[in-house]
Design goal:
It is a single chain. With about 375 residues, the protein is an alpha/beta fold. The chain is about 25% helix and about 20% strand. The strands form 2 sheets. An 8-stranded mixed β-sheet has the order 9-8-7-10-6-11-13-12, sandwiched between helices. The protein has a 5-stranded mixed β-sheet with strand order 2-1-3-4-5, sandwiched between helices. Helix 3 links the parallel strand 3 and strand 4. The relative contact order is 0.13.
Length: about 375
Amino acid sequence: MTAVAGTTWNRADVRAMRRALQAAARGPLVDPNPRVGAVIADAAGSVVGVGWHRGSGTRHAEVDALAKAGERARGGTAYVTLEPCDHVGRTGPCSRALIDAGLARVVYAQVDPNPKAAGGARTLAAAGLRVDAGLFEADAAALNAAWSAAMELGRPVVTWKFAASLDGRSAAADGTSQWITGAAARSDVHARRALCGAIVVGTGTVLADDPRLTVRDAAGRLQGAQPLRVVVGHRDLPAGARVLDEAAPTVQLRTHDPAAVLADLHGRGIRQVWLEGGPRVAAAFLRAGLVDEVLAYVAPVLLGSGPTAVGDLGVGTLAAAYRLDLTDADVLGSAEAGFDVRVRLRPRVRRAGERPVGDAHLTGRSQEAS
């Protein structure tokens, strides 16, 4: 732990914030709002209320904890994993609720990166409460990594996922692509899909592969809340396309502009996007500088021909190559079922003043999208 601005944390502070972090972890991971936990201690230091945010539209963690504490909160301390909000949305500002409850002190872990909600600490201090920040800040930020990044970027975080042969082919010459990778890799994909608010593909993927774009178990059964299915492009979709079934919500965005796609989704409360489109949609997002992470599933297979995993990036020479940094690599599978390699990478930060090299049409085949 690192004390902020000279703050010295005592054992009661540490215990209470740990309990607030545990409460925060009970909230939904995929939601327009962050996961937040709160603990209220009375003037003697005894915990009298524990609360957490249960998702968009429900009461915030501080209000939840205050409801349980009642009058025992007066003169006490609130421990909150995120700076109390200072704006009116679906609910009122938590800063005002804490003031009205008669608290003497507020301790929070992470500064709120959302410009619309930030400022609660100033309001609390102006009302005469003691405000301390930074206790378990890194732990609190880790609870909402994608949400925090989306707030700072002003758009959803984008993970581009693809599956390919060892020579970079997403399908064979005849168009067949299921399955390049094995069952373990596909199971891993579904587990990671479930952590995102939306799955994005182009119209070409839907027309070519008729994918379901849902989160399923090994037996094909739907699992949990489903991400929003997003189809990008101008072409009409067949009435019988599987992305139009009742398994999950679907929206078609009739544009070829990746920035416009992300702006629309951000407005819908989507904080993390799973990009599964074909080589052209991938190239469009890469060229626009709108891919934050690349997740590649590479099979020990050689095809020699067929569609590549990514389309034209406008690279004419090796010096202009689109370079990425390796985050980690893991082997998935078994000797009996076969192995694949999952490689996670992050695009390198562009040089100062360097601009994305353009745009591309969002069409083309998927990489084992289903």
